[in-house]
Design a protein that fits this description.
Tumor Necrosis Factor Receptor, subunit A, domain 2; alpha+beta; disordered C terminus; two-stranded antiparallel sheet
Length: 459
């Protein structure tokens, strides 16, 4: 309807201009004898002067014919003395026409007196008829065809910053275009990336990865010692103390297992506990020294070892246990030191677990002894665990060392008995018998008890 109204208005304007410029249509000249009587705009038809019909004109008087309007021109009224140029936006390819043709949609006529319309070229369009030119495609739009009547919006993933273009530009890698009709692309923000061109969105960095800059074309793996549990991150987290991350691209940190520890942040591995130390729990930030009485020779231990009987660990932080030295002993486990053998006793080492009582016939006045002393001649030791020897009483003797008892001293008999000799001889005989019995008993006891002290420790 709008196009039709415009066409009518245009034609009325053209007709009005012809009437004003070239005179109102006149009636045939009455009583004309020949063509010389005809005025401009008329022709002699052999009988009278007749107005030139529409589509023709006659600028001169006394003419027997009219002139057809040229192509690109028109004559809208009768009796015209001149033709009219087709106005801009119209054209006329034929002769003798009374009106011009409007340029079709998708076409234009840019000059007057045109004999043809022109098609809009790619990059431009024209939705209306009778136009003097085409409309450039807007930024964010394009026209790919000839004689287009409409522009098209760039699809998501493409853009066009310039007007009058026949196509759109794919978004660069690291960029995106989310909407239709975009005049510009957008850079992916930090935490996002896009490796492809023509994208309508960016990708979130995956868990274990990050994107630190804008317009990124790829994500970056978190380095060993760091991790990232979330998507779309701009950086990675350092592993906490007591934790580690052994490989790149990790989404979580790991607890240091028992037997290891890590005091620092951002570690790719845990430290095994040192000898003399242990770590009993997971996620430890430090190791613990073995307490006194315990030791640990290895690395990566979760507990310490109590020192064995006959040994000790003075600690703390002992990497090994120590044997009790000669003259000392330790009957228990987990000890921090050894016990000296008591006076009257001795210890055979190293690594003794108990002390030994000196046997009868021997003694030891000192502590931490490695053996016992045999009773000296003239002395005896009757009981075990003695710390001193006992001298023989007057009239008794112990000729050998290590005596358990003393024996009576026996005097030599006189060959010629004096008066009263009979009773004296009798007494000597009794004493001699008693001594023999005591010596026998003493030798047996000494032999059975002294064998314990025989050895390299006796002194």
């Amino acid at each position: 309807m709008i196009i039709e109204c415009r066409s009518r208005v245009l034609l009325i304007a053209v007709i009005t201009a012809g009437a004003v410029g070239y005179g109102v249509v006149s009636s045939p000249s009455a009583g004309a004898v020949d063509a010389s009587d005809c005025a401009p705009g008329e022709f002699y038809d052999g009988a009278s002067c007749v107005p030139c019909p529409e589509g023709s004109y006659q600028p001169d008087a006394g003419q027997a014919a009219c002139v057809s309007a040229d192509a690109g021109h028109f004559v809208a009224t009768q009796g015209a003395t001149d033709q009219t140029d087709c106005p801009v936006g119209t054209y006329q390819p034929d002769l003798g026409e009374s009106a011009c043709l409007e340029a079709d949609p998708g076409h234009f006529v840019s000059a007057a007196a045109a004999i043809a319309q022109e098609a809009c070229v790619p990059g431009a369009y024209q939705p209306e008829p009778g136009q003097a030119g085409c409309i450039d495609a807007d930024p964010g739009h394009f026209v790919v065809a000839v004689a287009a009547i409409a522009q098209e919006a760039c699809s998501p993933g493409a853009y066009q910053p310039e007007p009058g273009q026949a196509g759109c530009i794919d978004a660069d890698p690291g960029h995106y275009v989310a909407e239709s009709g975009a005049a510009a692309q957008h850079g992916c923000t930090a935490g996002n990336y896009q490796p492809a061109s023509g994208a309508d969105h960016c990708r979130y960095a995956d868990a274990g990865y990050f994107v630190g800059n804008s317009t990124a074309t790829d994500e970056v793996a978190c380095a060993p010692g760091t991790y990232q549990p979330d998507r779309g991150a701009v950086g990675c987290n350092e592993a906490d103390p007591g934790h580690y991350v052994p490989v790149g691209g990790s989404s979580e940190q790991l607890d240091c297992p028992a037997g290891s520890y890590q005091p620092d942040a951002g570690a790719a591995a845990c430290r095994p506990s040192d000898p003399g130390h242990f770590v009993a729990t997971d996620a430890a930030t430090q190791q613990t020294s073995c307490p006194p009485g315990a030791y640990q020779p290895g690395q990566g231990a979760t507990a310490c070892i109590p020192s064995a009987a006959g040994h000790y660990a003075a600690g703390p932080g002992a990497a090994d246990q120590t044997e009790c030295a000669h003259g000392t002993f330790q009957p228990g486990t987990g000890a921090v030191g050894c016990l000296d053998a008591e006076p009257g006793h001795f210890s055979v080492g190293p690594g003794a677990t108990f002390q030994i009582a000196c046997s009868a016939g021997t003694y030891q006045p000192m502590a931490a002894a490695t053996g016992c002393l045999a009773a000296s001649p003239g002395y005896f030791v009757a009981e075990p665990a003695a710390i001193v020897q006992t001298p023989c009483a007057e009239g008794f003797e112990a000729q050998d060392p290590g005596a358990l008892a003393c024996t009576p001293i026996v005097a030599a008999l006189d060959a010629t008995p004096e008066d009263g000799g009979a009773p004296t001889a009798f007494l000597w005989i009794v004493a001699l018998g008693f001594g023999i019995v005591m010596i026998g008993v003493g030798v047996n006891r000494q032999h059975s008890q002294r064998t314990w002290n025989e050895g390299p420790w006796r002194r």
